[in-house]
Each structure stands twice: as C-alpha cells, then as structure tokens.
Amino acid sequence: MTTEFTPLASLLGGSLIGVSAVLLMLSLGRIMGATGILAGAIFPHSRQDWSWRIAVLVGMFSGPWLYRLLSGSAPVISVPVSSLMIILGGFVVGIGVTLGSGCTSGHGVCGLARLSQRSIVAVLVFMISTIFTVFVTRHLLGMGA
Amino acid sequence: MKLLVAYLVGLIFGVGISMSGMANPAKVLNFFDLAGSWDPSLAFVMGGAVVVTFFGYRWVLSRSKPLYEISFALPTRSDIDLKLVSGSLIFGIGWGLAGFCPGGALPVLGTGNRTVMLFVAALISGIYLTRKLEGVIADRVTRAT
Questions:
Q1: How would residue B139 be classed by pLDDT, with cut points 50, 70 and 90?
Q2: Which candidate from B9, B87, B92 shows the least CB-CB separation from A133?
C-alpha cells in the first residue's frame, strides 16, 4: 500500500512535537519521552511525580480531537498488519524501550537535540533494526505491504 | 498551573503526532520500506522535531532552572552498554512489526481506536514484564555479591 508523501504536514507536525518537548523542559525540566512518561504514570515513584504525567497523557488524548477541529478531518490511521502483529509488536516494543531507556521521542527527538551519545547510538540501532524488520516481513516473508 | 502546562504539552504533542503521520502505521512502515513503497515523510517529522528541540533546548537549558521545578531532570549516563544497544535493537523489531511507536500510539488512544488499544495494552505488558524481570535479576545479583 502506497502512502502520499506529505513533507509540509510532516515538517509542521514534527515542529509541534519539538515545541512540546521545549515547553516541557522549560516548565517542568523534563524530557519529552513517551515511554518514560507512560511508564512513570503506570508505575509511579511518588504521587508528586505522578500527576504531571497523567496531565500530559490526557493532553495527548485530546490531540487528535483538536487536530480534527483545526483541519476538518480526523488523522488517518490505516493499519496494514494483522492484530496479531500489533500485539506482538506492542509487546516487543515494550521490552525494547524499557531495556533501551527510550523510544523515538525520548532518544530520537530529545536525545538527538541534546547530542547525547547514548541517544545517537540508540537511534542508529533502532532505525537499522526497523528497516531490517520491515524488509524481512514484507519482502522475505511477504506479509502485509 | 503546573498541570495545565503539562496538559498543554501533551495537547501540542498530540496535534503534532496527528498532523505528522506518526500515528499512521501504513505511513510509518512505508518510511522504513526502502525496497518497496518508500514514503520519506517521516524524515521531515524527525527533522522538524530535532531542529526545533535543538534550538529550544539551547535557550531553555541556558536558564538556571525550569519555571515550576527547582532543577532540570536530565539523563546523566553516557556509557554505551549492551542493554542500550540490545533494547534499541528489540524496539526496532517491534516498531517494524506493528508500525506504531509509543509516541505515535498514545495520542490515538483518545479516539478510542481498537487497534491502538491492543497495541498499548501489549506495550504496557512488555514494559511491566521487563521491569519485573529486571527487578528479579537485580535482586539475584545483590544476593550473590
């Protein structure tokens, strides 16, 4: 399945992700990492460290609705893989981001912006690993393209 | 005030994710499908996010402290260990299987999308199991030494 190349929307959306990361650092002094915020919300260290994470998550949940209001259409979510792959993928992502201390937002956006060596390594490794995985599933195993 | 800003952070992130295409597994998987229906859009998401965060962080981190906390909570580790590399490798496999990463999936939870609910439930299970196992291993090591 081909998807439309959307450089402008993607650049703008990416910039907004950057703005949210900067605003979180400015206000609460925290890294905008989806994994870290989620894990800390579900397995909290203290009540004090819990409420801001819930507020960020609730904000995230309202994001698609505000987007719909502004743009006039809901964000496109099309899933070319089976539910089994979604569950397997989600579980594997959970293991990976916990061991690797971060995901696309934590390492890929905030870490790279800080020129963190750990993040640069993490991003290189997960990018190559994702390309390899997609190559294997789509072109060697012939699954959902 | 603190929670309101945290909500705003999540909201901006959620709009950015919705606009960028990160919430769309078809688009995400196509970005990694170099040998197939390649869609370079996600490079623009990463580019926009990293550039904005890079300059924003330079300004924010030149301040003595964030607005609502006494200090910045920045990662301090700089060692490249096996856990970081293997975790990132595993994360990439999961991302390549499902097409969702945590930051791309969380905002979509707000729409009640079934597939994303499956993904996030599996994601949390993966995080939970890994934390549990890490705890068990850490206990063993402490007892052995």
A1: confident
A2: B92
Residue B135's pLDDT band (cuts 50, 70, 90)? confident
Secondary structure class of B51 (helix, strand, coil) = helix
The domain containing residue A73 runs over which residues? 7-140
- Answer whether B26 touches A (CB < 8 Å): yes
Provide the domain count of chain A: 1
Asked if the structure places residue A145 within a domain, the reply is: no
Contact B14, A61 (CB under 8 A): yes
This prediction has a pTM of 0.96
**pLDDT at A145 > cutoff 80:** no
Q: Are A92 and A72 in contact (CB under 8 A)?
A: no
Residue A83 lies in a domain: yes
Q: Where along chain B do its domains lie?
A: 2-144
Give domain status of residue A115, yes or no: yes
Q: How confident is the model at residue B97 (pLDDT cuts 50, 70, 90)?
A: very high
A98:B87 CB<8 A: yes
In order of A75, A114, A133, B11, B37, the CA distances from B44 in angstroms are: 17, 19, 22, 20, 17
Has residue A94 been placed in a domain? yes
Chain B residue at shortest CA distance from A18: B49
Q: What is the pLDDT of residue B88?
A: 98
